[in-house]
Amino acid sequence: MHALKHWAGGAIVLAALALSSAAQAQQQSWPSRPVKFILPLGPGSGADIGARVFSERLSAKWGQPVVVENKPGGDGFLAITTFIGAKDDHVLLWGPAAAFTAHPYPHAKLPYDPRELGPIARVTTTLVSVNIPVSTKPNTMAELIAEAKTRPGQFNWATVTGATDFIFAGWLKKDGL
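Structure (tokenized):
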């Protein structure tokens, strides 16, 4: 009985090693051809710059070209539907998760099923800031809110697709702007 326990334990270790070796062999065989990053933002955006830096390094590491394809527009829907429609394990969606996680809130109907997207890695952190021309009076957020309330419709704002525009709209609503 004692020998049987050792044999079973050894079989489990061998099975684990075999699975580990198979997984490593599979990982080493991917990518077997060029990889494409599809971005929901345009050339020169932060996501684009990051993707291009990573694509160069991954190309060198993988021995395969990594191509960046920008598909801006349509609130990220163009890139997402292109990615999902590719049905190709060498095509990856690269961009802020906010580009699709916020979609169900402002859009009643989506042109894709969110369950078809699965994040695999976080590669950057986004910093969000509020900026105003130095020629304007406000020096703090409280002063900016007060100024905006005295001059309705005279301040403009811009942001990128996704969480930032969703968060900013929520901030405007919360502060009665």
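The chain is about 45% helix and 5% strand. The two ends are 77 Å apart (CA to CA).
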